[in-house]
Write a structure and sequence with these properties.
This protein is an alpha/beta fold. Helices cover 49% and strands 13% of the residues. It has a six-stranded mixed β-sheet. A six-stranded mixed β-sheet has the order 7-10-9-8-11-12. It has a four-stranded antiparallel β-sheet with strand order 21-22-18-23. Helix 13 runs antiparallel to helix 14, helix 18 crosses helix 20 and helix 22 runs antiparallel to helix 25. The chain is globular, with a radius of gyration of 35 Å. The N and C termini lie far apart (91 Å).
């Protein structure tokens, strides 16, 4: 009959070593979106799971250190004095480790006045006496003295090492029972055991191998040939004997132990899942699978207007109703069995109370009109905008759309990947989402309650009510309106770009000495780094090929013309393929317009993004980028109005920093780049030329985006030392900006979250990363997000105000696009002056700052020429 096996976990020892091992590897600390450190808990959890999966322990216990003084500290006050105080990041995680063990039903053993080593030693001997084998889970070399034929040590930190007696002797050079003697002579810096002066690791090992024990070495010290060792033994007997006592694990301490009390039990899955949710271990949560949905599910697909009307009549007045939009599959009423069948049409999912939902084909949307248009019926959705666009197409104007769980999810995490209904249901409800829209609507109801409560607790309700929710219909109207393009102009530009691409390709071939496929990274890498022997980058692309990414070529472009030509070629072909040739194919056949989709949850800073097509990335600083904008035109006979915030992020920098020089420059209407040039380069404003202004502009925006001296030097083509001088001069003149940056970094490092002027949050867990590159990026993000995020919020507020004013005045003009700090409108000639005034006033007065907010507003026959 096999012996029972007991696993004893040296909890603190494992946690400390795992935590500091990650620190030595400069790995990014793990944190929740609210800033709770989690890496030690994650590592500990994975170790327990690995033990359970690989070895299926019958008995297991986690041993913790006592906080009370022990006999060692009473005998030697400096015992463990070398150890630094536990890092705060680690201290915060210890209670979570205990909760984890409780959820896994792993007994926690802790005895007042005894170290974990002694508790493990005593339990090990008692378990042996009870006929069990013992596995000590630790990376502490002190524990090796306990190893024998029935006791082994498992170190899960370093390659899952197992120590039996021969392995201990191989590692330590002595037998397990001699480990304490070895430590008594050579000392132990970690526990501050003094040892014998002048006797190191090799000397201690040789002495123990020769004499067998510390006591024998002391008694026979006169036989030691080496003078330093002999005198150390003869002159430090008491110190060495004390070191032996400190190093020896006490196995006879009076503690009670019963093997049956540490028998492995099934985990408390509900408690374990809650910990995984709280600590955002979503991958682990997925592995556990969703909770079984034991509710009686009243789902069905409705097929007639009468059935829709009957269902709506059942919903009590004032009860919140979830409305979702989707297509593909719908549930069939199968007595709550949850069987779903495919249906190739679009649906609205309607649900009230948990597990009570219906799928309504859009063709039967008319009977829903009273419900949807009743402002006293609260509507809850995931992606209200999709619902609006779906029912607007049928002449229904929904009212009372109060909650959008997609927007809630983004507010709480600032993570675009955290906002899909599937992810939200899995993370917050521990539920696998069915494809049926009525099931989705049902889940939306529960999500709204949970996420809405957290939005309130985090103080984010005002951002939601003031910005995010009212922006939804504005964006929906912009998507529905679309923007007109001129296909003929695009065809003309396509021809120009095609000729330009051929010209650049010819120049690349001439410099390379042969023709090749410029679009092939493998062929390009071979030409540049093998045939032309350009400096080889350390960066690799896919398949371990040498990288020819843009940043690699940009580093070489200043000295190697072929790299600049390749970059120019890529820019031209990208513009041609992404916009010039693609836009006509995306034009709606009925409206003859491009209807891009605006995404409120697509960028962590809070900026809007767009897709199908992405109009945010059309370059403005290149001639070809401006030419593409010429193809965007208004309705026949109308004008385009283009409004652009002037240097909004620099103005926000002045507001946040309250730097007197910067604030004064904006209040006096000075050209900020000329002013910076004067301050940084020590040149009177009237003598600032174009080149100095260009450099000052790079410095201004470099400060906003946390550009280093290395980055600024590359951008301006100057030595790094000169770039550092520019930055130093900037901070000397704009001392308030430097204080703002330092204060922001300090605050975000403490709380792990940065905020916009209006309270929108962005977690930045990498702020305390031990990897300098990751930490530097996080610091730049911490400073830039309040500026970029506030600029995004300002233009959103302006859009809401302008849209409302257009509707209030009954104007025909329409908002078409938002691209970063820019808004586009089309308007009839009769409304041109009124709209220009309305837009400028709304944008400039959207929120009071310490400096004036300026919007440049122009009009023209296309996007390029609107001035």
């Amino acid at each position: 009959m096999a012996r029972p096996r007991l696993f004893l976990i040296d909890s603190f020892g494992f946690i400390f070593r795992a935590f500091h091992a990650r620190a030595r590897q400069a790995m990014t600390p793990m944190r929740t979106s609210s800033g709770i450190p989690t890496e030690a808990v994650f590592i500990f959890n994975n170790m327990l799971r690995k033990l359970a999966a690989a070895y299926k322990p019958q008995h297991m216990a986690a041993v913790f250190e006592s906080s009370a003084p022990t006999f060692r500290s009473q005998e030697f006050a400096e015992y463990k004095a070398n150890r630094s105080e536990m890092p705060d990041d680690l201290a915060q995680q210890i209670p979570w480790v205990r909760r984890l063990l409780e959820a896994m039903r792993v007994p926690i053993l802790e005895y007042e006045g005894y170290e974990a080593d002694d508790v493990i030693g005593a339990i090990t001997r008692r378990a042996e006496e009870a006929g069990a084998e013992v596995v000590i889970v630790s990376s502490d070399k002190d524990m090796l003295q306990l190893v024998n034929e029935r006791v082994s040590m498992f170190n899960p930190i370093y390659e899952d090492l197992w120590y039996d007696p021969p392995k201990v002797e191989e590692k330590m050079g002595v037998k397990p029972q001699q480990v304490a003697d070895l430590l008594a002579l050579k000392g132990d810096a970690i526990d501050n055991i003094p040892g014998a002066p002048g006797i190191g690791d090799k000397g201690a090992r040789d002495l123990i191998l020769r004499f067998g024990s510390v006591e024998q070495a002391l008694d026979r010290a006169a036989e030691v040939e080496r003078k330093m060792y002999r005198e150390s033994l003869q002159q430090n007997r008491e110190r060495i004997e004390m070191s032996k006592r400190l190093a020896t694990i006490q196995t006879d301490i009076p503690i009670e132990f019963c093997l049956d009390a540490v028998r492995v039990e099934p985990p408390d899955t509900a408690a374990l899942k809650q910990i995984y949710k709280d600590l955002e271990f979503y991958s682990l949560l997925r592995e556990m699978g969703p909770e079984a949905d034991t509710r009686t599910r009243d789902y069905a697909a409705l097929e007639t207007a009468e059935a829709v009307a009957e269902f709506l009549a059942e919903i009590p007045p004032g009860v919140p109703v979830a409305v979702t939009y989707g297509s593909g599959c719908s549930g069939q009423d199968a007595g709550g069995t949850g069987i779903f069948a495919a249906a190739a049409q679009d649906y609205l999912g309607i649900a009230w109370q948990p597990a009570h939902g219906r799928a309504v084909p859009l063709e039967l949307a008319e009977p829903l009109r009273p419900l949807l248009e009743d402002p006293d019926r609260p509507k809850i959705s995931h992606d209200i905008k999709a619902v609006l666009l779906a029912v607007w197409a049928r002449g229904i104007e929904p009212k009372g759309c109060a909650e959008d769980v997609m927007l809630y999810g983004f507010l709480l995490s600032a993570d675009p990947g955290n906002c899909s209904l599937e992810v939200l249901a899995r993370r917050y409800l521990d539920r696998k989402l069915e494809q049926a829209v009525e099931h989705q609507a049902d889940s939306v109801l529960e999500l709204a309650a949970r996420l809405g409560r957290e939005v309130d607790e985090r103080g984010l309700r005002d951002v939601y009510r003031r910005i995010d929710l009212p922006l939804v219909p504005v964006l929906a109207r912009m998507e529905r309106t679309g923007i007109r393009i001129n296909p003929e102009e695009l065809r003309r530009i396509s021809g120009v770009l095609d000729g330009e691409a051929q010209r650049l390709a010819g120049e690349v071939y001439a410099l390379a000495g042969r023709a090749f496929n410029i679009n092939s990274p493998q062929q390009l890498g071979k030409v540049l780094f093998e045939e032309m022997t350009l400096p080889m980058p350390v960066k690799y692309g896919k398949g371990k090929t040498i990288s020819t990414a843009a940043d690699v070529l940009e580093d070489l472009a200043a000295e190697h013309e072929i790299c600049r030509k390749v970059l120019d070629y890529r820019q031209v072909t990208k513009l041609k393929g992404t916009y010039v040739d693609a836009l006509p194919a995306l034009m709606d056949r009925d409206t003859h317009r491009i209807h891009t989709s605006f995404n409120q949850v697509g960028a962590a800073t809070g900026r809007l993004s767009s897709s199908n097509p992405n109009l945010q990335n059309i370059p403005i600083r290149t001639e070809m980028g401006r030419e593409i904008r010429a193809a965007f035109v208004p309705r026949e006979g109308w004008k385009l109005i283009v409004a652009d915030y002037s240097q909004i992020e620099l103005r926000l920098l002045a507001h946040f920093s309250a730097d007197p020089v910067l604030v004064a420059a904006f209040r006096n209407g000075e050209d900020i780049h000329t002013r910076t040039a004067a301050e940084v380069f020590g040149v009177p404003p009237l003598m600032i030329n174009g080149e100095l202004r260009r450099r000052a502009k790079a410095v201004n925006f470099g400060i906003v985006y946390g550009l280093s001296a290395f980055g600024l030097a590359g951008q301006l083509g100057i030595p790094q030392r000169e770039a550092q001088t520019y930055i130093d001069n900037y901070f000397a003149r704009y001392a308030g900006v430097k204080k703002f940056i330092e204060k922001t970094i300090t605050e975000v490092r403490k709380c792990g979250v940065t905020r916009t002027l209006f309270g929108r949050e962005r977690p930045i867990p990498e702020m305390n990363s031990r990897n300098s590159n990751q930490r530097g990026f996080a610091e730049r993000t911490a400073v830039n997000t309040p500026l970029q995020g506030t600029a995004a919020d300002l233009i959103k507020l302006a859009m809401i105000r302008i849209d409302a004013e257009i509707e209030r005045r009954g104007l025909e003009s329409r908002m078409l696009l938002q691209v970063h700090d820019e808004l586009l409108f089309e308007c009839p000639p009769a409304e041109l002056d009124e709209m220009r005034s309305l837009v400028k006033r709304s944008m400039e007065n959207v929120h009071q700052l310490e400096v004036p907010v300026i919007a440049d507003v122009g009009a023209g026959d296309n996007w390029r020429d609107a001035k």
